[in-house]
Amino acid sequence: MIRFRVAVCASVAAFLAGCGGPETPVETYRAYLSAVARGDEALAWTFLSASSRARLEAEAAAFDATAGASLADDERGSEAALRRALSSGPPHHAPAIGVDAVERAEIVEVARTDASATLRVATPEGARTTVLRFEDGGWRVELAGP
Predict the structure, then answer these.
(1) Could you give the CA distance from residue 51 to residue 121 in angstroms, rounded to a whole number?
(2) 3-class DSSP state for residue 21?
(3) I need a surface site. Which of 1, 2, 118, 134 has the fewest CB within 10 A?
C-alpha cells in the first residue's frame, strides 16, 4: 500500500512539475520544507533524489526486519523511514520547522551546475548547506546521511 501511495504521489508530482510545480532548486527545497513542516511524508518523498530514496528504502527494510512483528503498519516502509530520518535531526538536513517559518526561511543558491545546486538555508535553528540534484526533469533534495 505504501509503495502504491508513493507511486501515486510521484505521478502527481511529475504532473505538477509540468504544470507550474517547483522549477528552481530554491522553489523545490522550499516545497520540500513545507511538506516536511506539514508532516506530509508522501509529498516530501517525491522531492527526494533517487539516491536518498534508495538509502531510506534500505534503512526501512533493515529497520522493519529488525523490529519484526512489533511494528504497526504506519511504522513500516519508506515513508516511516523518512519520518524517522526527519525526526533524527542532523545529518539529514531536515530542520524541525513550522509551516509559518518555511516562508521566512532564507534560502539562497550559492552554486549551481546543470546537475546539482548547493543552497545555503538559514532558519531559526541555524544555517547550513544542502545539495539538490537535477534528476528526471526536476530538482531533487539530496539528504545528507551516514
Answers:
(1) 21
(2) coil
(3) 1
